[in-house]
Amino acid sequence: MGDPNLLEVLTEEGEHADKHIDYSFQMSEQSLSSRETSFLINEETMPAKRFNLFLRRRLMFQKNQQSKDSIFFRDGIRQIDFVLSYADDIKKDAELKAERRKEFEKNLRKTGLELEIEDKRDSEDGRTYFVKIHAPWEVLVTYAEVLGIKMPIKESDIPRPTHTPMSYVLGPVRLPTSVKYPHPEYFTAQFSRHRQELFLIEDQATFFPSSSRNRIVYYILSRCPFGIEDGKKRFGIERLLNSNTYSSAYPLHDGQYWKPSEPPNPTNERYILHQNWARFSYFYKEQPLDLIKNYYGEKIGIYFVFLGFYTEMLSFAAVVGLACFIYGLLSMEDNTSSTEICDPEIGGQMIMCPLCDQVCDYWRLNSTCLASKFSHLFDNESTVFFAIFMGIWVTLFLEFWKQRQARLEYEWDLVDFEEEQQQLQLRPEFEAMCKHRKLNPVTKEMEPYMPLYARIPWYFLSGATVTLWMSLVVTSMVAVIVYRLSVFATFASFMESDASLKQVKSFLTPQITTSLTGSCLNFIVILILNFFYEKISAWITKMEIPRTYQEYESSLTLKMFLFQFVNFYSSCFYVAFFKGKFVGYPGKYTYLFDEWRSEECDPGGCLIELTTQLTIIMTGKQVFGNIKEAIYPLALNWWRRRKARTNSEKLYSRWEQDHDLESFGPLGLFYEYLETVIQFGFVTLFVASFPLAPLLALINNIVEIRVDAWKLTTQYRRTVASKAHSIGVWQDILYGMAVLSVATNAFIVAFTSDIIPRLVYYYAYSTNATQPMTGYVNNSLSVFLIADFPNHTAPSEKRGFITCRYRDYRYPPDDENKYFHNMQFWHVLAAKMTFIIVMEHVVFLVKFLLAWMIPDVPKDVVERIKREKLMTIKILHDFELNKLKENLGINSNEFAKHVMIEENKAQLAKSTI
């Protein structure tokens, strides 16, 4: 007949079902709003006979007949919507946890949920209990109305767009229609349990999709009380998870990802997603966005829509950036500046001043020959064009994303979705910590309230923590600068010595070598600081006790973005805008902490060092991130399964398989967005120095999409579905970075690149009509009299040189304005400032014109929205009239007359208004 323990559990359920259940229990005071309480189920909706029928079926059920992929209760009828797990605890608070679980599960049954418990002796590890939860129809219809879930009322007559430009070219990237559009489009309305006849309910078991079911159950779990402690009512599954009363809470996957489901299980959408989305061989295919939304919910779905759209737009920037790089590659040998530097008769005869005090020797300019050629790849005429292009590209990207988002809101039925619905949902942790209550002006209900004075200390601590860690980032950057200054002399001593005065052409100059090692060290420091700050920022945000989940995420977003902005970009800002700008000149150098001489740029400028820094940090972050995302959950899951599979003769059930997977967590999507936004900063803020940045980002994102898809379908538990109609605060951050990128790229071209000085020489100072750039290198280097070196800065080894050269525009030692800036310096500075002003105004003008010309919502979407609203109102109107006719029981003529009178009244009222 079955397990005696099972019989005992089921008997308790049967006895419980025969009792009169008071559904309006005290939970309504704090856990449920008055609206939810009014929908609580009465005893007539769940007769005891139904429980007795299930009881008889379950007692006859043999466990060994159950499939390990089953997602149903033991009766094979009721679908598992959620699973809780816990293990025996031998610690001193074991009794308290057991009491909490007992009270919690009792209250879950009072809300109408049905529970079935799997004993630990039937689990693979022999120590884990599983509580399976099923939401019956009465619960689903009640909370679907509470949550305002929209359900289909009629199949849409608006055809999907079938023709797209160049569809024959894009054919290979298209998915089958059955995968891209797994369900027909419907006109929808907010579900009402009193209007069930209005909705297309063919089968109650499948009417609500599994994503809506687990969303409803989680809503109940997050507000269900489990007792009173310290005079406060405690409730919510999150608090129970934090106290280890339950070890996990999760909805089930549809089945195995490597094979389709077998009857009676429903269609295995997880398998379809894996086959058409998570395989790396499908990297060139479009994403099954509707299927992602149906399975994981709108919030995760819209992330993949954004990532896919961003990747598509990157392809255009990548092509243009690659073209600029190829132009630099083809023009490398014809570059007059590199030719002069490499020429033994020009660059080989120019003796440069030492790059550090005493231990550094003089060196010949042609020792930087290969470095100057490599610098030309990224510092050429196309740099200006690409900087302006990216300023326009980022505007097009954001404007077209607005349109894509508007189209998505229509397609996913989110037009009427308002973020306020999410804001009104208080965090259980906030409710538990509040001692005060006040009237909510929106809901007109008494809600928990925390006065400002109680939060101020935590706000101060939060601000101080963020400031401290940002200061730590700046300190670490200064430490890396000191490292470069300290080791530069070491590199210079054995790389330059006598060889430096010979006509050599080495790529590994002391500057480049120090820059490479410094960039690698800086990247390691970035990863270490980032690891610790993630933990601290999450803890600090929790201590602030945010009111809603949206406030929590916004607060964490601000902290994490500010820190990562400083952490990842500070070194790039230093190289781009500070390095080499305040060096001074021989005999009067600027010193850091009165000890280390400020870093100088290469004679070709600092752009090559900025490119090196950007390449190492951007590439390293992307490679490290993808490896971490793939290897980390894979290793943890392997180890967890290895420990769990101790009883191979036991049924390794669907809930146990999912239990052994890694949890995606409430902040999993937050870190995905953060990673993408930081990459967006690399692509836009410093792209003038590295035209290949969009290409690297494109390659990374193609891999990122499939890595994220693979880990979600194979390595992570299924997430609780949640709604969202936009990417939220990240959109504001993207707009801010887009505006900042125009300024940063303008300054990079003006002050970091060598373009402006070359243009000034070309138009104002060149004396060669046939080859205007001839003599530019000699013109850009000033002369210094070696006898003017102070004793503490002159090289220890004496040479027979009279003068040496350095990069600047200053008068020579034989002029009366000795070592002061000459007129060409001011001409170049004026040209730089003019370029910045002109470029910013041109780009911003184009940005504003594009933003004005491109509508936020496409015209066809506006028409579709109007059509759907009209049809929905008409369907609801017809339904109400038919219902009224049935209730009145009058004939057609009387009914038509009655309707005409009511419509005339309505028209009169409308005209009066």
Automatic annotation (TrEMBL):
Belongs to the anoctamin family. The chain crosses the membrane at residues 302-330, 383-401, 459-492, 512-533, 556-577, 677-699, 733-753, 825-850. This is Anoctamin. Its main location: membrane. It comes from the Eukaryota. It is found in: Cell membrane; Membrane. It comes from Piliocolobus tephrosceles (Ugandan red Colobus). PANTHER family: ANOCTAMIN, ANOCTAMIN-5. Keywords: Cell membrane, Glycoprotein, Membrane, Transmembrane, Transmembrane helix. One of its GO terms (molecular function) is protein dimerization activity. InterPro entries: Anoct_dimer, Anoctamin, Anoctamin_TM. Residues 72-289 form the Anoctamin dimerisation domain. Pfam families: Anoct_dimer, Anoctamin. GO terms for cellular component: plasma membrane.
